[in-house]
Amino acid sequence: MNNDSINFPWLLKMAWRDSRKNRSRLLLFISSIVLGIAALVAIYSLGDNLRQNIDSQAATLIGADLALTGNKAVSGKVKTMVDSMGTARSEERSFASMVYFQKNGGNRLAQVKALQGDFPYYGKFETIPVTAEQTFRSKREALVDQTLMLQYQAHVGDSIKIGEVTFAIAGILEKAPGSTGLTSTVAPTIYIPMRYLAQTGLMQKGSRVAYRYYIKFPQKTDVEKLAKTLEPRFEAADLDYKTVQAQKEDTGRSFRDLTRFLALVGFVALLLGCIGVASAIHIYIKEKLNSIAILRCLGVKATQAFLIYLIQIVGIGILGSVLGAILGTTIQQFLPIVIKDFLPFELVTEISWLAIGQGLAIGILISILFALPPLVSIRKVSPLNVLRVSLDSQKLDKDPLTWILYGLIILFIFGFSFLQMRTWIEALIFTGSILGSFLVLYATATSLTWLVRRFFPVSWSYLWRQGLANLYRPNNQTSILIVSIGLGTSLICTLFFVQTILLTRVNLSTSGNQPNIVLFDIQASQKEGVLAIAKAQHVPVNQSVPIVNMRLEEVNGKNASDFEGDTTAEQSRRIFGREYRVTFRDSITSTEKITKGKWQGIYNKSSDLIPISLEQGFADRSRIELGDTMVFNVQGTMMSTVVSSFRDVNWGEVQTNFLVVFPKGVLEEAPQFHVMLTHVPDPVTSARFQQAIVRQYPNISIIDLQLVLRVLDEIFNKIGFVIRFMAGFSILTGLIVLIASVLISKYQRLQESILLRTLGASRKQIFAITSLEYFFLGSLAALTGILLSLVGSFLLAKFSFEAEFKPEILPIVAVFLFVSGMTVFIGLINSRGILSRPPLEVLRQDV
User: Fold this and answer.
1) 442-464 burial by CB neighbour count: b if 16+ within 10 A, else e?
2) Could you tell me the pLDDT band of residue 180, with boundaries at 50, 70 and 90?
3) 548-587 burial, b for 16+ CB within 10 Å, e for fewer?
4) What is the rounded distance in angstroms from the CA atom of residue 618 to the CA atom of residue 685?
5) Could you tell me the pTM of the whole model?
6) Collapsed DSSP state (helix, strand, coil) of residue 98
7) CB 760 within 8 A of CB 49
């Protein structure tokens, strides 16, 4: 061999020969990164397929070429403009209303959509039977969402009452343009023909109705350009518009955020695997020091020795990435099942070669990066190590190149997160969070190991002491296992705790005598009748609140046109385009607190301006200060007001909360409707009370907060399942790292076990020592992860959700026992060969 040149064929041959004895070990290195790459390839493939499907199905998401939305019906010149657009037009009016199933007396708040025209023009309503999609349009029939049909055990042909009109159920609505499984759960939809809308009696004063106009254009029309041209006219008429291109961008943006988040979760799994590889390589190289020293004695240069093992690692990276890409492509075929409830379209999956290429590149690069820090120590191995095999490992850690490599790893993590998040601040936060988590876990593991050694329980029995002492024995894997398994456990637990915090918060809001039924759109003439029904049903009325609709005309003498073209006052301009629902009272509620100014609950008629109170956040966003004047239009009557106070409002409580509150003595005679909050003690009373209200006053809408709670629980479970599915890769990777860690030091364990047996220890005792070691490892990892998640969840509850954090004990104990048990099980399975080896075998080992 020519020592003056790098002979790659010879290096390849040496790397191959050296790997013969260690291939099982090298395969474990590969397995540590396979799941991380699989997760990334699966997510990248999903994102690629989503983009392709959104591009091909964007028109079916909106159902037309152009959709116009407003909060009032178009009239005059605007109606003439809308009627002249395109070749086909449809109109839809949607609103929330109670629906009543006459067969079984069930009632539920639903989203009613009255339709006129042939909408959708692209795609179709997916119904059972198929013909119902057309037949309901010309008869007094309805399409009812399958969620409602299942909940109330209704069948096609049954009757459903909406307002004053009874409709026959023409078919089960499985899917409509733009709808998802989650939207159907939260707000199930019912379609009716618009010709019957007036007869329902639901279009009353105070009712919030969305008016939509769907327009189809000739095939070659540039709808995007046309919409941009007409945008000023749309804005003047308070109409929002959406084109196929805009729908495509909005949908793509939503799912791009989802895939980026999931990619970051998968990346955490890959990082765990790579840390496992780095730790295993560190031990692997330490065991190879003698072989490397012999090669150096034979004339091999340090660079060549380094390249021999680098080739092995590159091979590991390539093979692991290829296997991960294959597994990820397979998993991607099942991901649509996992996220189907979030998709407004049918996802068709194909193999994404771009995603596979990205996964291969990331896998090879990151596996090499993490393996290099322990590999560079090979350059420092001297031929004299043949005689001095107890090389001080601490010297290897002082190589400046090692710290450069650590810097490159951090830079790579930052670069990857930046590509996902697109902002350097978020990427910096993610990188810092990852490093912080690893450092906290590593510091915890190191501290626990030190504490065990420092305060060793000498009074314990021999078996317990030996199992505990193994946590700090040579070549121990305590730190790496606590980091990998602990982080995976922390992810799962934090998800569970956050879900519990949110659900508990809703539960507390509806517990005791807190309101759990909300009735709204009660007309003034209906108020006494509703109170009479509540009294007859023994249902207490917690609150009855009058609401007046109004619009804002001026702020400090300026109207909406004065803010046109001022990009710095965009929020100020927006406050003119909305309808305000306002109440009047003489005192603040338990959910409010005055932050600035003075509360004035009674209007002094000698004052020129009416004192009002604004919600603090709304005032800040709208750049309104104390003392500013505001003119409101109340059904044509102008009311001049002055901002006298700001309120901090707890929107999380079940109360009627408002952005704007007037004092008493001003709005009593204004057109108004009422909202009532009641508390029903049990489901039977709730059903009876709601049925009585719906039968007598079908226009009144009812929100059952217990039903909302069940819906929230279902939503959280669906979202939680997706995240747990991805976080599971981290848990599995941690377990694979555990297997690799056990096997990588198997020879070390073999020596220890044989020596113990030579000294008289029985197989049963060695089995007990091994079990206890892995129990300590698993319990420490689980405990560390759970403690981290408890701290993180407490901080989230306190500062993000402003809720009380009371974790449940049983799930915590279950997670602890599961992780500890799995660690012991895997450790014993991988150590089973040690117990069956005869004592003389260790004497024949060829080091």
Assistant:
1) bebbeebbeebeeeeeeeeeebe
2) low
3) bbbebebbeeeebebbeeeeeeeebbebbeeebbbbbeee
4) 38
5) 0.66
6) strand
7) no
